[in-house]
Design goal:
Elements: H1 18-31, E1 44-49, H2 52-61, H3 64-67, E2 73-76, E3 82-86, H4 91-105, E4 113-115, H5 134-144
Antiparallel strand pairs: 1-3, 1-4, 2-3
């Protein structure tokens, strides 16, 4: 049996501590609930992949107040793209406007990519009959509204 505060690092399952390990596994299994709830994002994003001096030019050409974007947060994505976050309730419409204005401001530049990243999920379907065609599946999903 291991004592509390023992310095033994690699505790192995023995006859003495097996019931304790089994109880811990049971507690962990009880804590696991159903699938995670999907929540809509709190902020809309626009990503820009281009040299920094091009972003500077675009900021000079675009007035954020006209679009209705007051607070704009920036960060760099994994790919090195500049990610602009718009934390307002109607952010997606304003992000679409911002992406459109950025596209207009940087349309004559080479190597510029502007995107509107969005969260997506995969839908997995199991136990389907062989006689069901993809159109029927798409129709049923559209009915449910998923």
């Amino acid at each position: 049996m291991l004592r509390r505060g023992s310095r033994r690092k690699n505790a192995t399952a023995t006859k003495e501590n097996l019931p304790l390990l089994a109880r811990k596994r049971h507690r962990v299994a009880q804590r696991q609930r159903g699938p995670p709830k999907l929540r809509p994002p709190k902020e809309a994003t626009v990503s820009i992949t281009c040299p920094p001096n091009e972003v500077r030019r675009a900021r000079q050409r675009i007035k954020l107040g006209e679009i209705g974007v007051g607070d704009l947060r920036t960060k760099y994505g994994i790919t090195g793209a500049l990610v602009l976050k718009i934390p307002v309730p109607d952010g997606p419409t304003r992000a679409d406007l911002l992406a459109e204005k950025l596209g207009e401001a940087l349309r004559d530049q080479e190597g510029v990519k502007i995107a509107r990243p969005q969260k997506m999920v995969d839908v997995r379907m199991q136990n389907l009959e062989d006689s069901i065609c993809p159109e029927e599946v798409a129709e049923k999903i559209a009915e449910v509204g998923a």
